[in-house]
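The methods section describes the discrete structure representation at length, but only in general terms. What matters is that the chain and its backbone geometry are given together, residue for residue. Nothing conveys this as quickly as seeing an actual entry. For illustration, here is how one protein appears when written out as sequence plus structure tokens:
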Amino acid sequence: MSKNLMMTGFMVCLCFSFRPTIDTNPLWHEQKIKNYLPHMTSPDVSELLKKTDMVIIPIPALEQHGKHLPIGTDFLNGVERAKLVAQKTDVLVAPVLMVGQSPYHMGFAGTISLSSNTIVEVYFEAVQSLIQHGFKRFLILNSHGGNRAISIFLVDRINQETSGIAVELGEAASTLSKPRSSSSTSANEKKVFDRHGGINETSSSLYLIPNLVQMDKAEQAKLTLPAHMESMIPEVLEGDAATNLVFLAEGLKSKETGKKTSAAEMSSTGVWGIGDLSTATADRGRAETERFVSAAVLFIDKWKKLRPINAR
């Protein structure tokens, strides 16, 4: 073989070995998730409609969760729970908004809050779109305590004003939920005030969104509740329903109400609780998540039997 031919072959190989590759977004790491609307094509949705007419719609929030949990905790945790349910039984997961009703967290940077009227109208119109495509049953998953009244009202509007049928998924799952296991709650564990961004929510986040939890920044909150509310806490911890109702009616309300119970007025960090955050664990979060997912799947499967997809 001549030197010229050898050199030509070498250059061809060199060109191929250094052929530039196509670069893609280095920040993209998501994998396609079954039954998750943002990842699906229109044909995917049409195919799913042959098997189910059910939709889970998370109703979350975009709000502060102390110094260690992300602003998107309620959105991310709610969506992840819904996705886990949808892997065990066919149901569409259709997130609509990240934002919820959180005026009492506005004292901390990053919180976004919408009015209840705006939130309900957006979700109601989204449901109408899904009904037009053939979905009939809606499981409203409230993943932020402040959205409770909104979720209930949305369920009622769907049932009263559309051909759709709706339930609140947390309430529905509770009808078939097993008691908490000893692994998630010790009989000897002392009850402490733990409402927002505390041990329970941190544990769930350590399981559901672990790489977004910054435990090195977790800080014990200093709480300054109005004196009459402080005196209610023992009865709240004992599970007194009447006291709890009164406590939550006044607690965590916008600064503009004058109640002195916004997050910034009551907590040094935004966490509404006094539990030791270092005791939060992914295992505890896993147990609680699996408990909810199992109960939600049982309810959905029961509803499918009670009302088959072809029922009119």
